[in-house]
Amino acid sequence: MKFSNNLMAVLVLLLSIAYSCKQKQKETSEANKEQWIKLFNGKNLEGWSPKIKGYALGDNYNNTFIVEDGILKVSYKAYDSFNNAFGHLFYKTPYSDYKFKMDYRFTGEQAPGGRAWALRNSGIMIHCEDPKGMELNQNFPVSIEVQLLGGNGVDERATGNLCTPGTHVFYKDSLITEHIIQSSSKTYHGDQWVHVEIEVRNDSIIKHFINGKEVLRYSKPHIGGGAVNTGDKWLPKENQPLKGGYISLQSESHPVEFKNIELLVLDE
């Protein structure tokens, strides 16, 4: 009887420890989930400000950025012609070290007057300059662009590429001055949703993920190069490291939709 009582006590103790561990794991998991910030509320553009070429910050020209059915959409229903009205929708808070994730898809037809290269083309701009300082007719913010491309139904067309408006990076330990570095992702044709994630470590490593798979990484983002129509404005800051900045979503003439936009702040 004594042996039986001791065995029962040990079993109770083990069950108690197991339950405690499970509870701690659950609490840790819930704490980790709580760290993700929802940048888009699914109802309106609260927290976001448009900057469209030729228009002042905050002017959502032709209702380019709209919210419908819980989805943030880039729409050209009110456009007669795109007329190079490149736009960016900026989130209100700058960040340096973080993970960003969302789902996107391309829909419909390109707006009349859109550039051929802008077919099924959009992007997530990270480490952006402050939109308050952008010039009225500036086409793109100085930034790092995670380029989002949709397949045209025929050709191979990787997504999650890198574009460098007014910037340079190091890729495979070498300085790259070309404007585009292609990722290793596959092509996504049609209107299917694609999941994109970005891991940003200040001015160190930046990684792109498409549907959970790493497709590109590079380092040392800094100011340099052209592709931004601001003349010599940025020359005094040439080679300055980009340690952080704003995040914006792009409108380049093809309708695109975004949802589940979230961010996780990382320790520096």
From TrEMBL:
Pfam families: 3keto-disac_hyd. PROSITE patterns: PROKAR_LIPOPROTEIN (PS51257). It comes from the Bacteria. Residues 35-263 form the 3-keto-alpha-glucoside-1,2-lyase/3-keto-2-hydroxy-glucal hydratase domain. GO terms for molecular function: hydrolase activity. Transmembrane segments: none annotated. This is DUF1080 domain-containing protein. It comes from Hyunsoonleella flava. The lineage of its organism: Bacteria, Pseudomonadati, Bacteroidota, Flavobacteriia, Flavobacteriales.
